[in-house]
Amino acid sequence: MLISLSRKRNRTQFLNHFKYLTKKITIGRTDRAHFPELGFLDIDIKIDTGAYTSSIYCTDIGEEDGALTANFLDPEHPKYNGRKMYFEEYEITQVRSSNGQSQLRYEVKTIITLFKKHYVISLTLSDRKEMRYPVLIGRKFLSKKFVVDTELQDLSFILSQNEN
Predict the structure, then answer these.
(1) Can you give the residue ranges of every domain in the chain?
(2) How far is Cα 81 from Cα 152, in angstroms, rounded to an integer?
(3) Which domain of life is it from (predicted)?
(4) CA R_g for the chain
């Protein structure tokens, strides 16, 4: 009798978890996203479930007259627009890198468009020049919205291209 109760509970837990998972969108290991407030369309992103925070490549990061200023990407990047961005609302947050070292970074909120939906995302500003992808998407953003399938790529981008 105890065994059947245990099996029934496990089955119920599994079914509840399955219903929860089916509400999430499957995203691949890489994709392209829009950042409309930053003026970027189809920016390459890497999905990193090992990272908690999301980050974007910036240069010339600093504070001027109480506002955060930054240039996104660099002149060598094909999507570079040379426009200095100003943020009146920002935070300074501590981020632990994959090698275990902590550093303070500026963090801003903006809009990201994936799968034809707009989401608010918090991005830390970092020097990702040596990295292949200018944007890294971490668990904080992915949680409760996406399931990652590492065998897939560019699902959101393909969906947006098939619409046109």
Answers:
(1) 25-58+91-163
(2) 30
(3) Bacteria
(4) 19
pTM for the whole thing? Answer: 0.82
Which sign does the torsion angle of CA 40, 46, 47, 49 carry?
A: negative
Q: Long-range contacts made by residues 153-158, C-beta under 8 angstroms, separation at least 24?
A: 153/28, 153/29, 153/30, 153/31, 154/28, 154/30, 154/31, 154/32, 155/26, 155/27, 155/28, 155/31, 155/115, 156/27, 156/31, 156/32, 156/33, 156/114, 156/115, 157/31, 157/32, 157/42
Question: What are the φ and ψ backbone dihedral angles of 14, each rounded to 5 degrees?
Answer: -60, -45
Q: How, if at all, do strands 40-47 and 135-137 pair?
A: parallel
- CATH code, 25-58+91-163: 2.40.70.10
pLDDT for residue 129? 67
> What pLDDT digit, counting tens, does each position of 113-138 carry?
999 999 999 999 987 667 788 999 99
138-149 pLDDT, tens digit per residue, is 999 999 999 999
